[in-house]
Amino acid sequence: MVIENIKRLAKESKIFIIALTLLVITLSWMYFLVFFTKGVVYDEVFLKKEVIGADTHYIGKGRWGQIHITVKGIKGIHDNIEVIYRLPNNIVEKYEVGFEKNNEDFREKVVIKDINNNIIFEGRYREGDIFLFDKNEEPFIEGIGHIIINDQNPYKSDYKIYLKSVVSFASGEGEQIRGDVRLLVISIFLIIITVIDIKYPLFFFRLRHSLSVENPEPSDFYITMQRISWCISPIIILIGLLAAIF
Known about the structure:
Blueprint: H1 2-12, H2 14-35, E1 38-42, E2 45-52, E3 55-62, E4 65-72, E5 80-87, E6 91-100, E7 108-113, E8 119-125, E9 132-134, E10 139-140, H3 163-171, E11 176-177, H4 181-199, H5 203-209, H6 220-243
Antiparallel strand pairs: 1-2, 1-11, 2-3, 3-4, 4-5, 5-6, 6-7, 7-8, 8-9, 9-10
């Protein structure tokens, strides 16, 4: 079996151990580099964050094409911030967002202008809120998201960019790492269990039966199933690790 051959080589060759260690370290470094990449999720697509001077770019590629959202300016430093959407099907929209701190309220005053410098929204915003709020302090409800019908490309001439999204990009809200921490923790737990089981094949067996049976010995069936699990577990772990970053 592959596992048995690896164990034999590990015992007989120091060069193999060094090479294997370097390979694991390199792959781990590359994986965590991707896992901890910062960005945002837009239309269920992860957009990688790239900062160039005062401009922040969020770039990613989804099912329907490339998405590139540019934020020109930094909240708290610049009075007005431009948010430019470049979406599939050559959709390009530009907005200008202005913030004004209100000392009497936790919400900031926000003004949004379109590409023609027309005011299209004036109200209030607070990071973490689901909605924007209009001048009357009423929730500004735009929709529930972009719905794909019959597997059709949603990026058409009537595609709607929600103003809450525009303000969120302008304020830097919603940034996150690419990876799913829960899946990573589960995968690491499985790695630890698998490594212990391969290194000490009788550890879990004796841990389970030592209190009820003196000097327990595994059956041939147990040994066979254990070796099968050694082949299946790495596949499950690999799927979990990949799912954590895609």
